[in-house]
Amino acid sequence: MEPEAARINMAVMRAHPLALALSSLRAGAEQFFRVQTGDGLDEFHRSTREAIHQWLAPLESAYLKADQQSEGPTPGMADLSNYVTVPLAYLALAALAALVPQAVRRRDGMALGALLFLWAALAGNALICGALSNPHDRYQNRLVWLVPLFVLALNTRLRQTEDEAEPAVRVPNALSLPTALLRRRAARPALTGSLIDLGVPDGLAAEMAGGDLPAGNTAEWTATPQP
Known about the structure:
The protein is mostly helical. It is about 75% helix and about 0% strand. The longest helix has about 35 residues, at about 75-105.
């Protein structure tokens, strides 16, 4: 920066700090949402023409005759692509914002750190480029393509975390229930016989073998003399 320009900038910041801060925030906010394709594609191309005129003067005439932008086909193609890319960019930003509370709820530090890092990069790039230069779509397009990639990767990670956190619900096999009942009934005669050998009455032994009477009452019934 030239010394004179530096002195002017410092004088403006000292004289109008609030106005400068507000204008910088407005420029940063505008820059954040400017993600169209084709920024700078026009029929003039001042910087390119100046470079050719200065460094490649012998080729300037041929360059002007072969100029493909005389009727502006490339800007028209960029305008058509914007009907797809711009809505997708805004949807990706909305999805990125929706992933933040999910990462907090899942207590996923890695996912939350990645989200905050990308939001800080997007906001910082918009504020710096919008404040120090005028808002241009090409500035934010340098980073916005990362948003859908982060959304897909982090959404997959959070879904895996959610599946691992949920306990598995074990559903009993319907075919195993009759088998268990049959095994229990098959074991009743042997248990009934053992109880009868201990002096338990036949009817009471059958009830105890079937599980209808708590095992703690066995001593009380065995102590009762049979009629």
